[in-house]
Write a structure and sequence with these properties.
single chain; Cobalt-precorrin-4 Transmethylase, domain 1; Methyltransferase, Cobalt-precorrin-4 Transmethylase, Domain 2; five-stranded mixed beta sheet; 14 strands; elongated; alpha/beta; six-stranded parallel beta sheet
Length: 274
Amino acid sequence: MRTSSDSWGSQSQTIIKKDDFSQSNNSNSPGKIFVVGLGPGNLDQMSYRAFQAIKETDVIIGYKTYINLISTLIDSQEVISSGMTREVERCQLALTKALEGSNVCLVSSGDPGVYGMAGIMLEVIKANDCLTKVKLEVVPGITAANAAAASLGAPLMHDYVVISLSDLLTPWETIVKRVEMAAKGDFIIVLYNPKSKGRVMQIESVRDILLMEKPPDTPVGIVTNAKRQGEKVVISDLEHFTSEDINMFSVVIVGNSQTITWHDLMITPRGYQL
């Protein structure tokens, strides 16, 4: 394993300009970018194609925590890791490496197309008009909603919506409107990023909004560290769930009007006649 940077290092001082992407690829064939979903974090939850993509690449780029998750799969590849909030820079670097002819693995937690790296990577390629200059493959992974649902039983057997409560990139007013509409539509609601050290009251506001449309005994499942070490599963109800331990590693699933609990499981009937 060749490590270029364990904390972005000199890359944090590098300004990547749009003109840098216009240079022709001098290699015989274009490089390829794999945007790989790692799933929940355990290797046994990754897809076979994800394993292949990691092995086929020359360069692996990602958030340092995710790089650590796949450390046993890394051989001679160049590894470039960085901290949080450096997503755009990681994608720019992946494009630069691919234009130079390298096969690049850009790793993402969960599924790269669900609050992951696929969208940012495509935006960077589009902004620099490089779609014909590199190859691209998005490798899906198990997203947190599905991992949490599996640990709870079968809560997502009917129509559901996924809403992130993080207002870092989305205005809180927009999030509130989406929660209101989902509640009115009697959707099962999956909440990502429900709570953090800097966001403690938003989940309380969401509960109050949902209580305007849903009964207080509506089943609510909380899964922390879904399908990874230290997993914790709690089943509560809409009135009381915010008193449970909820953090940025939790996924909250609020049932619809048909969702039931049975033993330690949540079940949303699909409508079959038994």
